[in-house]
Design a protein that fits this description.
This protein is an all-alpha fold. The chain has eight helices and no strands.
């Protein structure tokens, strides 16, 4: 008698494509709604705008905190993935610059959603601390590629560039900080660029 094939355990199965699409759509809409309405944003409204039922939203994100955390972690994951994408599509120095400009956009968006993130258990700083390593790793990888390509001076310390840009992020309360930060990207790159022979 042939042995009956057992189905893999539920946890080992990949999510269905439509479930993955629903989750991504919910996160995209939730980011917009939490940014606009803060922590008081209606989860019913997020479900409706996402084109899913409340049950689908709660199946993916049982609590408001779960949804807020997932929104933030998703944005950080996209930022880290963009570094890899730029590395594959652009010359190293252009990839570094593009990613640094994207990081500024990320910080600008984070500033808008922070009031909502502050309502999560442990507060927004817990989330920011948890994502710092992922962002730092991507930043260092982008700088190191530009060094390896000969675009940046060989003695460039990636952490110097990280610290300089992070310093600007402490001025986000000042109107127009984004334009200043974008200019600083070019100043930082110029300061460590390998002189042309």
């Amino acid at each position: 008698m042939p042995k009956e094939k057992l189905s893999p355990p539920q946890s080992a199965r990949k999510p269905r494509a439509d479930a993955t699409r629903n989750r991504e759509r919910i996160l995209e809409v939730a980011r917009e709604v939490f940014t606009r309405d803060g922590a008081a944003a209606s989860l019913d409204d997020i479900a409706r705008r996402s084109g899913v039922g409340n049950a689908t939203l709660y199946r993916h994100f049982p609590t408001r905190d779960d949804l807020l955390e997932a929104v933030y972690r998703s944005e950080v994951a996209k930022l880290a993935a963009a570094e890899q994408r730029f590395a594959a599509e652009l010359p190293p120095l252009e990839a570094l610059r593009a990613w640094m400009l994207l990081l500024i956009d990320h910080v600008s968006d984070k500033k808008l959603i922070t009031p909502a993130l502050d309502t999560v258990a442990g507060g927004s700083m817990r989330l920011f601390e948890g994502s710092r390593s992922l962002i730092h790793t991507a930043f260092v990888a982008a700088v190191n590629r530009a060094i390896a390509s000969g675009d940046l001076l060989s003695d460039t310390d990636p952490n110097d560039i990280v610290r300089a840009l992070v310093g600007v992020f402490h001025t986000t309360a000042v109107p127009g900080w984004e334009q200043s930060a974008r200019r600083l990207v070019d100043i930082l790159i110029a300061g460590v660029r390998q002189p042309k022979a």
